[in-house]
Design brief:
Elements (H helix, E strand, L loop, with lengths): L3 H5 L4 H19 L4 E2 L3 E3 L8 E9 L1 E9 L1 H12 L8 H19 L6 E3 L3 E4 L13 E8 L2 E11 L6
Antiparallel strand pairs: 1-7, 2-7, 3-4, 3-5, 3-6, 4-8, 7-8
Length: 166
């Protein structure tokens, strides 16, 4: 359950803009699709937006996690575009590709968030209604993303410990 503090916090564009820029760059160059971004909003419920999620933790100057959550059909089509061929969802390569897309998004954003930040190896969950535990004192900000082959969301629940100087 979110705390009152998390519910009243505003969305910090210095944290969100690097993720928006990274999503656009990754999907344009690596997947070959253009991404439309809707207005970010604060999320209250703990379940990810869609059924296929990759989770990446942040530590150092930035702590928390990022979840890249795909519609299952979108994940299948985006992974096929990324891999250059269809990849069955029950294949280990499917989870690896989903994780790699999230890794590239997080890595692209990380370089703008703190010089002393690290990210974890992605974990991938496939299945409806899974729950991701987040820091209780940090709001989860959803960045809704749309492509011509399906939708996904980037859910950012991180906090910066030092101002970004670069």
């Amino acid at each position: 359950m979110p705390t009152a503090q998390a519910e009243t916090q505003k969305i910090n564009p210095r944290i969100i803009v690097p993720f928006v820029d990274s999503v656009r760059a990754v999907f344009s160059t690596m997947v070959g699709v253009q991404t439309r971004i809707d207005r970010p909003h604060i999320k209250a419920e703990p379940t990810p937006t869609y059924d296929v999620s990759s989770i990446i933790g942040f530590s150092g100057d930035v702590t928390g996690l990022v979840v890249v959550s795909f519609q299952r059909s979108a994940a299948e089509k985006l992974v096929a575009a990324f891999a250059g061929q269809p990849v069955p969802p029950d294949s280990p390569d499917f989870a690896d590709a989903v994780g790699e897309l999230a890794n590239m998004i997080a890595g692209g954003a990380k370089k703008h968030l703190g010089n002393m930040s690290s990210i974890t190896v992605p974990s991938v969950i496939i299945g409806a209604s899974h729950v991701v535990a987040r820091l209780s004192d940090v709001p989860c900000i959803v960045i809704p993303c749309h492509t011509d082959i399906g939708d996904f969301a980037v859910e950012v629940s991180i906090k910066q410990h030092k101002p970004n100087n670069g």
